[in-house]
Amino acid sequence: MNLFHHMHTLPPHFTHVHENLEMTYCVQGSYLFHFDALGEDGERHTQEQHVTSGMLILMPKGIAHGNSSVVYPYDRYFFEISDEELNAIQGSSSLLSMLMRRNEDTLPLFWDLSSHGDIFAGMLEQMYTVHMDDHIDPEWRQMHLHHLVGLFFCEIHKHYPNYFTASASAYTKQVQQVKAYIDAHYQQPITIEEMAKACYLTANYLSRRFCEQMGMSPRQYLTQRRLTMARMDLCSTTLPIQQIAMRNGFCDVNYFIQVFKRFYGMTPKQYQKQILESQNFA
Questions:
Q1: Are 125 and 147 a contacting pair, CB within 8 Å?
Q2: What rounded mean pLDDT belongs to the chain?
Q3: Which end of the chain has fewer CB within 10 Å, C or N?
Q4: Neighbour count for residue 228 (Cβ, 10 Å)
């Protein structure tokens, strides 16, 4: 994850493209944000949005965009996050589904967070401090950053839940039913056939429709849901690893350790230890 803090003078017309999802938060000042968008004629046209302090922009990858007409003093943070890092940060939450779909959309999202702007500016400052600390082990630093980004979006959801409801309309009722079934039964040993029967669908049709809209199979979503909830237990409890695995639908603790390490880059025990250290650090 790349995280930057800009307070310097920018070129008059600064246009660029990113290979990952980009998020920008304006702390102070304002500017004119321009981006390419597909018009009704099938051609790309430049659109503009006036950005002021307290606004967050979620920019899809691969779309040309930039700033102009900057009003100083100017202060903003921005960071790039890959698909893999989104998985590590948010697991199978509705936020992950929405942000992953940012890669398929042609328009950015603009969220006004100004009524609680000091909170988010403070959280970004903490992220940037961790990002720039060369005394922290790189692997630990990246894990800590992922944790802080997750908290950042949890705080947004706490104060502005309406920003997240639009994602539900992006999915058909059938896919929403499957997601809801998995979310409610992830602790149990469910199969694709059971999911399909509960939603009155065939297994093949369910899998195809789910993959088309979610970008992952129902089985992958189930695993990510279980990992997300297990990660929450690791962050908030001192339960044994085996008990955490069992209460989150993993019947085999060795498999749980294996898939957790593949997903987060470390074992559950290492993750739990690092979380405790990061809390002490903060």
A1: no
A2: 81
A3: C
A4: 19
Residue 145 near residue 86 (C-beta atoms within 8 A): no
> Distance (Å, rounded) from C-alpha 208 to C-alpha 204?
6
pLDDT 10s digits, 20-55: 888 999 999 888 888 887 655 666 678 888 999 999
- Which among 113, 108, 61 has a CA at the least distance from the CA of 86? 61
Distance CA 74, CA 138 (A): 30
- Structural domains in the chain, CATH included, are 2-166 (2.60.120), 171-281 (1.10.10.60)
DSSP string, the chain: -EEEEE-SPPPSSEEE--SSEEEEEEEEEEEEEEEEEE-TTSSEEEEEEEEETTEEEEE-TT--EEEEEEEEEEEEEEEEE-HHHHHHHHTTSHHHHHHHHTTT-SS-EEEE-GGGHHHHHHHHHHHHHHHH-TTS-HHHHHHHHHHHHHHHHHHHHHH-THHHHGGGGGS-HHHHHHHHHHHHHTTS---HHHHHHHTT--HHHHHHHHHHHHSS-HHHHHHHHHHHHHHHHHHH----HHHHHHHTT-S-HHHHHHHHHHHHSS-HHHHHHHHHHHHHH-
Query: Per the structure block, which two tokens stand in for 77?
Result: 């943070």
Note whether 235 and 229 are within 8 A (CB).
Answer: no
Name the nearest CA neighbour of 2 among 82, 120, 94.
82
Cβ(131)–Cβ(145) under 8 Å? Answer: yes
For the chain, the farthest-separated pair of C-alpha atoms sits apart, in whole angstroms, at 59
- Check whether 84 has a pLDDT greater than 90: no
Q: What are the DSSP calls for 95-134, one per residue? A: HHHHHHHTTT-SS-EEEE-GGGHHHHHHHHHHHHHHHH-T
